[in-house]
């Protein structure tokens, strides 16, 4: 029955569809187990803000709670999934880009922030922004509403080789560095991309690695311009 969970007895006026959870296969509403997936719904207060943690319902129970067709709830969940995926990509990039300088000097922090497409800020402001961004990014990747916790620390970085064209500020190729025969791998990449710059960087994923490579180059130029060596 749909009033079997405490969250359902609080008379919330609305629920927000947070997305699809494939690691949660039991509906808290009817108790059905072994579902292919559940739909995560977050209760909203009268002001429209989330007032508690998400609750996982089977698709039919989610439709009943929302008073909407199952197909409509499924579409809303997929749209929420796409938004979550964009947030995940942002979080991995932020951690990859700023994690290594989190405890760096003021000069390193200022250089990292000011040469990453942000408005020019002092070292104190940059540290504040980076700290807030990193906290938000780690919370995103540690959240288990839609999937188990994902890697979100610098110790989780993997090495990637990025091939850059510094004249056009474009990257042409990026790939993980293998654990074995790394020297042969680098030789092969240099042969395939003659005349371009290749840089090995640590990042949480392949999509973040090019941003890290360009940021590293930008930081070096920024420090040189400021006379920081």
The largest β sheet comes out as: 3 strands, antiparallel
Unreliable residue stretches: none
Helix content: 40-55%
Helix/strand order? EEEHHHHEEHEH
Hey, roughly how much beta strand do the residues contain? 15-25%
- Using the CA coordinates, give the radius of gyration: 23 Å
Q: Shape, please?
A: elongated
Structural classification: alpha+beta
Largest beta sheet: strand ordering: 1-2-3
What is the rounded distance between the termini? 67 Å
Number of contiguous helices = 6
Give a quick precis of the structure.
The chain is an alpha+beta fold and 229 residues long. The chain has a three-stranded antiparallel sheet. A three-stranded antiparallel sheet has the order 5-4-6, with helices on both faces.
Q: Which features would summarize this protein structure in a list?
A:
three-stranded antiparallel beta sheet; alpha+beta; 6 strands; 229 residues
């Amino acid at each position: 029955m749909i009033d079997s969970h405490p969250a359902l007895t609080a008379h919330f006026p609305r629920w927000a569809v947070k997305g699809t959870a494939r690691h949660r296969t039991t509906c808290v509403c009817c108790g059905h187990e072994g579902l292919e997936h559940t739909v995560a719904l977050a209760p909203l207060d009268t002001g429209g803000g989330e007032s508690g943690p998400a609750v996982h319902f089977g698709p039919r129970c989610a439709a009943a709670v929302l008073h909407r067709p199952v197909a409509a709830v499924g579409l809303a969940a997929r749209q929420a999934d796409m938004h979550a995926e964009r947030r995940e990509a942002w979080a991995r990039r932020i951690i990859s880009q700023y994690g290594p300088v989190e405890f760096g000097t003021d000069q390193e922090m200022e250089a990292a922030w000011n040469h990453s497409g942000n408005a020019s800020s002092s070292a104190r402001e940059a540290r504040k922004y980076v700290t807030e961004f990193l906290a938000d990014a780690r919370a995103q990747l540690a959240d288990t509403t839609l999937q188990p916790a994902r890697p979100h620390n610098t110790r989780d970085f993997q090495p990637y080789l990025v091939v850059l064209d510094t004249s056009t500020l474009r990257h042409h190729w990026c790939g993980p560095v293998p654990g074995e025969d790394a020297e042969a791998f680098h030789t092969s990449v240099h042969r395939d991309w003659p005349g371009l710059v290749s840089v090995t960087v640590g990042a949480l994923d392949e999509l973040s690695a090019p941003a890290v490579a360009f940021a590293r180059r930008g930081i070096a130029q920024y420090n040189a311009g400021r006379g920081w060596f």
